[in-house]
Amino acid sequence: MADLDGLKDGKDFGIGIPVKEKPFFLKGSNHLDWGMQSRLSRLFNPKSGRTVMLAFDHGYFQGPTTGLERIDLTIAPLMPYADVLMCTRGALRQTVDPTLGKPIALRASAGQSILTELSNEFISVEIEEAIRLNASCLAAQIYIGAKYEHNSIKNVSKLINEGMRYGIPTLAVTGVGGDMVRDARYFGLATRIAAEIGSHYVKTYYVEEGFEQVVNGCPIPLVIAGGKKIPELDALTMAFKGIDQGAAGVDMGRNIFQSESPLAMIQAVNAVVHELMTPEKAYQMFQDLKSDLTRA
Ligand code: 5RP
Question: Which pTM was predicted?
């Protein structure tokens, strides 16, 4: 039986001190449940409000592309420097050390390859599996303007519906439809649709013209993909411009793991994203780290 002797009545109720209601730090996320906000706080650094997601999920349709032939050798050393790891459940179980404690953005779609129609995806991961893997978010492509646009919206909606039951956010990944022009109008349309159907954040591409309109027309956080490999200074410049114009981070793959020095690059990207380091300084940091690493 509980010991009820000596119970003391509470005295200090802080009468007159209002309870502090702190608004949640991510846009569009204030009314989400505690579990959702907790997971989003793992995905985005609450201090900077931003994230560096290291994407290495490409193999689910590209196979062993350059830099991902041996994830255990090339990507594992980069993982400690990322805020979030974006990968398939296969790569997760095969190559990610569970003691690392990094939040996982789980690629939850599949169904096509580089040899077929890219927009023809389905949801390949059950919600129970995502919970078993302790995923911090679920990700699938939204292919606006593509052949299987309708199906891709259904896929993302399925993740949102299932994730909402268990407090797991959904990342909608804008896959560019066949004949679409990659401009602010297109990404404005795709990211807004992603937000309106209930996604919790969205990945898109940076565009030189009108990116601020894309960001401001999208009521949820938006992260930018790196896209195909470009010179390091250009990739850092793109990341800087994206962040400066309101992106909440990067979801970068090839421009990190195909860099001349992936370890140096991920640290330079981190400085741009979290400290808004200028591209020139970040590039110098990249060069310095690269030569240190070569000497070591
Ligand atoms: C593949 C993806 C990738 O995660 C995404 O494209 C980011 O990688 P990269 O920076 O190489 O573009 O969603 O479908």
Answer: 0.95
Nearby residues of 210 by Cβ (< 8 Å), 6 or more positions away: 183, 184, 185, 188
At residue 72's C-alpha, the angle toward residues 274 and 102, to 5°, is: 40
Q: Is pLDDT at 2 greater than 90 in this prediction?
A: no
Question: Mean pLDDT of all residues in the chain?
Answer: 95
SS3 for 16-40 is CCCCCCCCCCCCCCCCCCHHHHHHH
Q: Which atom of ligand 1 is nearest to the CA of 57?
A: 4
Could you identify the atom of ligand 1 that is nearest to the CA of residue 229? Answer: 11
CA 285/CA 296 separation, integer angstroms: 16
Predicted confidence (pLDDT) per residue in 257-289, tens digit:
999 999 999 999 999 999 999 999 999 999 999
- To test the ligand 1 pocket, which listed residue (222, 250, 251, 273) has its Cβ within 8 A of the most ligand atoms? 251
Give the 3-state secondary structure of residue 224. Answer: strand
Q: Which residues line ligand 1 (CB under 6 A)?
A: 55, 57-58, 86, 173, 225-227, 251-255
